[in-house]
Amino acid sequence: MRHGDGPDHREGDLAPQTGPAAPATRPPAPRAVVRPCPRCRADNATDRRLCTRCGALLDTTGASDRHPPLPWWRRFFRWGSERELAAGSRPRGGRWPRPRLALPLTVLLLAGLAWFARSYLNEAFTFTRDQTSKPEALRPDTTRASSEASGHRAGAAFDGFNNRYWAPARAGAGHGQYLEADFAVPVRLRKVIITPGTSAKQDEFLSQARPSEITVTLTTADGDRSTKVLNLEDQAGQQTFDLRGTDVVRVRLTADAAFGARPDRRLAVAEVEFFGRR
């Protein structure tokens, strides 16, 4: 072939490409590293400490590490609340922190409940003490009787011995005759033990008349009175009765009826014992 008539392909040369050329592949551009704002979620550069949009602190992890959250009981009783300030602002000076309403309202509510429930709380406390504590013997400070036979004074019924007894001056059933005991300090009564007759021994017990019905009158420190009727058995020894009263300063036991009453016999009471708390 002549020179200039066509392309001259020499041996060893590559064949010309017949298809379109493949585009050159470029490496992807590096993505900019940003830090989202914890408040408004705006993107910020990693070297910034404050948000470009709202001014919030971007390094929240470091702030929480430097200032750990307070426990709930300290947050409840705090008088002032810390408010997050905008960037560039400062707290106002000379202002007292505004107290929270939770604490004063709680105190007022508890005080009101305690005021209205004070009587119920007192009764509940007293009832608990009565049920859990053992009653103690209550000795009256002074004793008296409607009348006294010679050698059988009223004090014999409160001396702790059941071989001595009180008897009224007149013989018979002793209807209306009474024993009375006074306490210098108001007491809370729970029980009374009565030993009727002249003694706890059976042979001596039947020698005189014995009370079968007694009306107990309790007088409080305020002058209020309450009564209770006790029905006794005709048997020797102690007989126990529930007798409850609060702030009691005087107890009167009045004979209403008797066993074994005769014209030559007198009513006899060997012992009266009170139990409760002072």
Written overview of the protein:
Strands 3, 4, 5, 6, 7, 8 and 9 form a seven-stranded antiparallel beta sheet that branches. A two-stranded antiparallel ribbon has the order 1-2. It has five helices and nine strands; from the N terminus they run ββααααβββαββββ. Helix 3 crosses helix 4. The protein starts with 33 loop residues before the first strand and ends with a strand. The chain has 278 residues and is of the alpha+beta class. Strand 1 and strand 2 form a beta hairpin. The longest helix has 15 residues.
What's the CATH topology name of the largest domain?
Answer: Jelly Rolls
Q: In angstroms, what separates the terminal alpha carbons? A: 145 Å
CATH superfamily of the largest domain: Galactose-binding domain-like
Question: How much helix is in the residues?
Answer: 10-25%
Radius of gyration, whole Å: 51 Å
Query: Number of helix segments?
Result: 5
Number of domains: 2
Question: What is the H/E order?
Answer: EEHHHHEEEHEEEE
Helix-strand category: alpha+beta
Mean pLDDT: 80
Uncertain stretches of 5 or more adjacent residues: none
CATH top level of the largest domain is: Mainly Beta
**Biggest sheet record:** 7 strands, antiparallel
In CATH, the architecture of the largest domain is Sandwich
Number of strands: 9
Globally, the shape reads: rod-shaped
